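QUALITY CONTROL LOG
STEP: pairwise intake check
CHECKER ROLE: data steward
CRITERIA: each record must contain a sequence immediately followed by its structure tokens, with no blank fields

ENTRY 1 OF 2
RESULT FIELD BELOW
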Amino acid sequence: MQTNVRVMLLGAIGTLTAWGFPFGPPSGVTIAPADRPGVSCTLCHAGTPLNGGGGSVRLVFPNGLTYTPGQTQTINVVINDAIAAIYGFEMTARLESGPSTQQAGNFVAGANQKVVCSNNAIEPDTGCGGNGIQWLEHSQPSLSNTISVQWTPPSAGAGNVHIYVSANAANGDNTRLGDHIYAADYVLTPASTSVSGLPQITSIVNAASGANSGEAGSWITITGSNFASSATTWDSAIITNVFPTTLGGVTVAIDGKPAPISFVNQTQINALVPATSTLGNVNVVVSNSNGSSAPATLSLATASPGLFTFSQSQGKYVAAVVLDSPTSFEYLAPAGLLGSAQSRPAKAGDTILIYGTGFGPTTTPLNPEMSASVAYPLAHTGPDITKPLAQVTIGGQAAQLQFCGIVSSGVYQINAVVPQGLSAGDQPLQVTLLSGPSVSQTVFVPIQ
């Protein structure tokens, strides 16, 4: 009997140690200076490189990337990963004036959390000794991918604060293998006391159709004022295939979640709706160093289809290409319309590739926070999987559908064959999804 008890105990201990650190990792496994930048929790959890698991960790701040000195705020740690069964985390806050040695503010441990010091001991009532650096981490694994933490910012005059977070999306197989480790960092600025110059939102629309609707993972355009001081794109801000959620000092929260941003200037933001299961109206808030906008509303649906168009001719022509061969193409537009870019009308039998956003769920979900080149077809909405995923007509005649699905974050592609018998000139294009919604725009395909 004693042997059996011993075996049971050893088995239980083995399960716990196999998970890695179910009661919290050692201190200093964030990407903060003097911690383990570039390594983080992958020091112990093996399987993929840092931020290489196809997901991400994000921090959602209640007031955007600002803090009010001395005013406690709740920060949500959001971990997205396709295989995760349980979650763990560690985070730390440092002053920009001394990110290796100067603690910024104070963490307070919540349920299943603890604050540890550099000696890996739980913080005593007198605070961490030495330079006072704290790490907040789990004391029990979380079954939820969203973890709330409490942080009290430093007093006035402290300047910018850097928040560093690492997260373990564990697969629950009771080994340290195959877990996905993610890390991120944010810069918070002291909130401005000015009531002027705050971001203002005037409209939020589907980036393709212009309708006030979108879906999780679709492209939207936000217009307004007081966003960023200059135009910035994400070209140099995509790190290890993770899209930025801060660009030009601007953040966008949609349904409380940080949105990837591809472009921002003073009056416009192009962003991807983050992964969310919410349908109906959600709040959208734009924040910068001056503060946050009043919430605006975006309506989210399972599908909200829109077709991109070329900007020339007032968006008359759908954004598409026509294949000259399996490996070469020209843009589908009247010759010369796009300047130096080669373009031509289509003819009967040509295969054209049409681009849009918001076409609905795909057979394999694509994380909108990650850069990827894929070809996932739309998911069927009925029992008959032989039905076409969409109906495409050109000039009122049905076009043969070859593919309809997502090809990169927020971008869907339709491959269709131009039908016979069309008259030369501009012919209207109509797309209706198997799930029901139709593209509301009036767009055209040039035919020769």
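ENTRY 2 OF 2
RESULT FIELD BELOW
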Amino acid sequence: MLDVAESRVAIIACLDEAEVLDRLSDVGGAFRARVSADELLLVGPATAAADLLAQATTHLARAGSSGLAIDVTDAWSVCTVAGDGIAQMWARLSENRLPDERPAFVQGAVASVPAKAIVGDSQIHVLTPSNLGHHIPHRILDTCQDLAPHVSAPRQFAVRGAGAMAATAGAGVAR
């Protein structure tokens, strides 16, 4: 059975030199998703948006850089899929492999649209541009009917798994 739900998130983009972003310590327990050498996304519960932005802005100011931290939450839609069938669901919708070590961050096409994913032990959070937010849940419901998908009420974002929120993903980014 697959549980499909919208996740309420805060997504803060931090843009700066790699060395500055590398020194950004644990920020409010947010998941750290390294998009590229000069871009890091902090992904946490929607209730933490202001705190995440303030902490990231403070770090960049202390670093003396010209970096930028900006709340980009509205640019993204996050669909969380949980359950025993997430590996089969992922195999049907993406050519990206699921990393063994979790939590992990993966970038690439999912259901033929650009996406980023945070992979936990028993869940996958799929981030897509907000204008495509409807696409992933619809494709799961259509493509994975044999896995008994059902839609649940929206919930706060949380990463479950060993080392959950404190992990920094990026070194093992699959494409």
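INTAKE CHECK: passed for both entries
DESCRIPTIVE NOTE, ENTRY 2: The radius of gyration is 16 Å.
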